[in-house]
Amino acid sequence: MSLADAIRPRLRLNGQHQVSLARWHVGNRKLAQVVGLAVVAVVMIPVVYLVIGAISADQEGLEYLLRARTARIVGNSVGLMLATTLCATAIAIPFAWLTSRTDLPGQRAWLVFGLAAMVIPSYLTAVTYAEAFGPRGILQSLLAPFGVERLPGIRGFFGATLTITFVTFPYIVLPLRAALLHCDRSLEEAGQSLGLNRWQVFRQITLPQLRPALSAGTLMTALYTLSDFGAVAVMHFNAFTRAIFIQTASFRMDNASMLALLLIALTAALLLLRSWQRHRGRHYRIGVGAQRHLEAIPLGKWKFPALIFCGAVVFTGVGIPVLVLFKWLAGHIITNPIQVPMTLLMRNTIGVSAVSALVVTIAAFPLALLATRGTSRFNRWLVNAAYAGNVLPGIVIALALVMFATRNLMSIYQTLPLLIIGYSIRYLPFSIGATESAFAQINPRFEEVARSLGLSPWAALARITVPLARGGILAGLALVFLNVMKELPTTLILRPIGFRTFATRIWSSYDEAFLSSIALPGLVLILVSAFALALILRREEALG
Amino acid sequence: MEYSLQADHLTKLFDGQLPAVNDITLTVKPGEFLTLLGPSGSGKTTMLRLLAGFERPTSGRIQIGPRIVADDSRFVPPERRKVGMVFQDYALFPHVDVAGNIAFGLRGSRAESERRVKQLLSLVGLSQFAGRMPHELSGGQQQRVALARALAPEPDILLLDEPFSNLDTGLRAQVRTHVRDILHETETTAIFVTHDQEEALSLSDEIAVIHDGRLLQVATPHVIYNRPINSQVAHFIGEANFLPGIANGYTADCLLGEVKLYLPRTGDVELMIRPEALAVNVDDGGTSATVRWREFHGHFQRLGLALANGTGLIARTGVAPYIRRGDQVTVTMALPALAYDPANDDTLS
Question: Cβ–Cβ of A443/B85 closer than 8 Å?
């Protein structure tokens, strides 16, 4: 088990399709490999410069690495990761079960609003939580009649945990829900017939079947926590990303790259642990054969507590951020302290996101092709390397690209192309994954038939594979667009001077405490994200 | 004699595995329908893919008509082989309608290809379905579209990879007949892969039996059934009873007394007796046996018999006389048996 294999998520293919994929003409494969290699070369820039940065660090840099403060940063990040993963799981399991297997009233609506929490960027959620639960926040003003004049505030570990928990719990709900819906009901019935009560059935039969989904979801949450910048920055919690940002902003590049390498090592260790675990344990098979319709489990007297639980989750995850934004919007309209240049922000944000999504999709194409048909060791290496963005948090990529540009290519420092390269490296895995799985779902016989009917390999690709994979490729494009639009740290560090997006505008408004001018960009960002996500989810649902 | 297809010493090795195709030599005459018959994993599909050009042979030569399409130095890619292919799952392009699927391999003017599509649609009896999408068709109809699509560019050879295995039993016989008629009508040279012996026997001009990548026997269905070259082929094609015996020319002595032989032999032999070669009677003379089980099939019955010493035999007879489990019967040979040489791996020679 190599790290390279661990970085790349494994596709689950239908047995038949992986048997034999059309062998390619050597010339075509070479072309895909050359283009793929060029893409991977760009992806490798951050890794190379981080290593250079760390190697060239002087004695002082090494001392920095060994300082107690550095150890505290590691402790902070690991602690935060454990806390968020635990809390998010604790929320996600009952939420997923209630919204997929029971007769909970308004099931579908709870699910949709619960999942909506993930379209709100973490820095936005954090900012609104700080407002709601701050020492003199909304909660305090509600409690004021009871004599509460000041709350302790949620800055630090607690605030960061709260924010990331509610931003990430949907990442666990999604795979969990899919697994719950595909649970083998006859196993549960067998358990009941052997005399287990409902709770025993859940614990001994349902839960073990959910283990693969649960471990996939918690991994996502853990990785997200390590790489997230917005929540820890707003909550002033000194995790890796915030520390790296501070070092980068003050041009302490060797300190920053030391920390970055440490963060990457932590991420890599997490992935290795997970893939080792996956290799060791045999996973439960999800039921094969005819699927029976799953009848809803009646909640009975538990219906009311269940509704309160779902209500609290949705209110905290989505309700508070949206309500606070509307409160600020009202204040903004009444007082109108500063003009927010919405048109400009919209043009910048949409423009840079669209260009990046397009660049990423095109760059991912040859790699996705190699991933689905090249079985050679070189191809595997190439594709795995392209997935590097999965272990490189945005802040780390940005830092490394700054070092690259300032040392070797000053002319692109603080230009849009460098910003787009930064986004592209980060989100290339999303696009390769989407395109790869779209390709893998296509019966390889289609291309073979086309060949036997006289089409060259490229013609078969253009007339058969690409049209059939279009939906998946577009979903990948939307996903990249969505994420680039929300991306904060990469934009903050790599943007040209004066270039502003919704994300940077929200950040600077928060920084300068012009809270009311967060409202408009924040709400528009949520709206556009929700729309993009709805498209992606609808497609996934259509695929079953 | 000009062959439509010649495969010489064809071998295909996949990395670190036993040969999937091992030194196979075959010829197919123009207009002939050849079946590659073998259990799954025998290499028959790999053989087909080699002929189509989806796999490159490790060694050997393939010649289609006068053209050598693969040997040590040459490899013609599939799109230039003029070989049509019908897959087990049909692989109809889901984003193109029926007419579009059939026209896919056609070059030349639009009018010409429209004419050809029409011609093929009527050949396969789907003229009114031209505008349908593949998922709107039944399995049998999809099958016919796949056939029409493969035939449209007038390939030199048509390859069919288990084309009937996804159809219901009832439909299968009907589609099979239809396909055979279409291939005869268009005088297409066809190579067909199946593991279904009944299908192979009823459709083919010639059958090539493949096992573990090796070609065991090529012959007409009649010869393959009646004179399988060894006990392995006999087992694979139809049911067979085996009894040891001592041969002397055209007769042999065994548990059933003196039986006739197809081919003369002397000494120890392994007798291969088809179930329908046994006659089962209630009263006549013969070797006595007990009926262990009976399967009624409407137009025939299968009987499981036990001889006095416990040896089991399977017989297939008409439904009269009426026989029940536990009955005492007598068994005689109605047809000659085939004698294999047990010293030489149960082969005919």
Answer: no
| Contacts B58 to A, Cβ<8 Å | none
Closest by Cβ to A25, choosing from B49, B77, B95: B77
- Asked if this assembly's ipTM is beyond 0.90, the reply is no
Residue spans of the domains in chain A: they are: 25-56+337-544, 57-276+302-336
**How many angstroms separate the CA atoms of B208 and B34, rounded?**
7
Task: Tell me which chain B residue has its CA closest to the CA of residue A451.
Answer: B79
The Cα of A456 is separated from the nearest Cα of chain B by a number of Å equal to 6
Mean pLDDT of chain A: 83
Q: Does A445 touch chain B (CB under 8 A)?
A: yes
CA-wise closest residue to A239 among A73, A57, A407: A73
Domain ranges of chain B: 5-235, 240-344
A342 CB neighbour count, 10 Å cutoff:
13
Q: Is B133 near chain A, with CB under 8 Å? A: no
Across chain B, which has 349 residues, the per-10-residue mean pLDDT values are 90 85 94 92 91 92 94 90 89 90 88 92 91 90 91 92 83 84 90 90 92 93 92 88 93 92 91 93 85 92 92 90 88 91 79
- CB nearest to B104's CB, from A443, A450, A467: A450
Cα A56 from Cα A50, distance rounded (Å) = 10
CATH architecture of B5-235: 3-Layer(aba) Sandwich (3.40)
- Chain A interface includes B91 (CB < 8 A): yes
The CATH number, out of the four listed (3.50.50.60, 1.10.3720.10, 3.40.470.10, 3.10.450.40), of the domain defined by the range A57-276+302-336: 1.10.3720.10
Number of A/B CB contacts below 8 angstroms equals 69
Residues 6+ apart with CB under 8 A from B170: none
- pLDDT of residue A20 exceeding 60, the answer is no
- Which residue in this structure is represented by tokens 């055209």? B250
A252-297 pLDDT, tens digit per residue, is: 888 888 889 899 989 888 888 877 766 554 444 444 444 455 677 7
Q: Hey, are the CB atoms on B83 and A452 less than 8 Å from each other?
A: yes
Are residues A206 and A188 in contact, defined by beta-carbon separation less than 8 angstroms? yes
Kindly report the nearest CA distance between residue A184 and chain B, in angstroms.
27
CA distance B54 to chain A (A): 7
Would you state the CATH architecture of domain A25-56+337-544?
Orthogonal Bundle (1.10)
Contact between A388 and A47 under an 8 Å Cβ cutoff? The reply is yes
Distance from CA of B106 to the nearest CA of A (A): 8
Mark yes or no for CB contact B93/A25 under 8 Å: no
Does B89 contact chain A (CB < 8 Å)? yes
Per CB-CB distance under 8 Å, the chain B contacts of A464 are: 93
Contacts of B29 by beta carbon, 8 Å cutoff, 6+ apart:
B1, B3, B4, B189
Contacts of A382 (CB under 8 A, 6+ apart): A33, A36, A37, A40, A367, A370
Same fold, A25-56+337-544 and A57-276+302-336: yes
Chain B residues whose beta carbon lies within 8 Å of the beta carbon of residue A456 = 77, 79
Contact B304/A at CB under 8 A? no
B265 touches chain A (CB under 8 A): no
CATH of B240-344, one of 3.30.70.1150, 2.40.50.140, 3.30.70.990, 3.20.20.370: 2.40.50.140
Alpha carbon A151 to chain centroid distance? 32
In whole angstroms, what is the distance from residue A160 CA to residue A225 CA? 9
Other CB atoms within 10 Å distance of the CB of residue B84: 26
Q: Which residues of chain A have a CB within 8 Å of the CB of B78?
A: 448, 451-452
